[in-house]
């Protein structure tokens, strides 16, 4: 019984870690996409001014 409780506790801890890492990656990807979009717009605006 003690071993089972430890196994379940470890399982939940491990799952929590994975979910936290996945969420972190999703946030990073979302922010990265926004930065790329804003940078692309900024460059486009500058190109229009130059031409």
Structural class: mainly alpha
Query: Care to count the β-strands?
Result: 0
Estimated share of beta-strand residues: under 5%
Radius of gyration: 22 Å
* Sequence of secondary-structure elements: H
Quaternary assembly: single chain
Alpha-carbon distance between the termini? 75 Å
- Main sheet: strands, sense, barrel: none
Shape: rod-shaped
The average pLDDT is 86
How many helical stretches?
A: 1
Helix content: over 70%
Low-pLDDT residue intervals, each spanning 5 or more residues: none
Short structural summary:
By secondary structure, the chain is mostly helical. It has 1 helix and no strands. The chain starts with a helix and ends with a helix.
What is the element layout, followed by pairings?
Layout lengths: L1 H49 L1
What does this structure look like?
With 51 residues, this protein is an all-alpha fold. It contains one helix and no strands. It has one helix at residues 2-50. The longest helix is centred in the middle third of the chain and has 49 residues, at 2-50. The relative contact order is 0.07. The model has no long low-confidence stretch (mean pLDDT 86).
Which properties best describe this structure?
rod-shaped; 51 residues; 96% helix
